[in-house]
Amino acid sequence: MQDIDEIEVNQQAEDLYEKKSFVIDAGQSPTRVDKWLQVRIENATRNKIQQAIEAGFLTVNGKIVKNNYKVKPGDELILMTEHNPDISDILPENLNLNIVYEDDDVMVVYKPANMVVHPGLGNYSGTLLNGVAYHLMQQNPNLTEDDLPRYGLVHRIDKNTTGLLVLAKTPHAAAHLAKQFFNHTVQRKYVALVWGDITDDAGTIHGNIARHAQYRKMFTVYEDETIGKHATTHFKVLQRFYYVTLVECVLETGRTHQIRVHMKYKGHTLFNDWEYGGDKILKGTVYTKYKQFVDNCFEACPRCALHAKTLGFIHPTTNKEMYFDSELPDDMKAVIAKWETYSVAKKLDQE
Question: Which residue, 72, 156, 222, 288, has most beta carbons within 10 Å?
Answer without folding.
Answer: 156
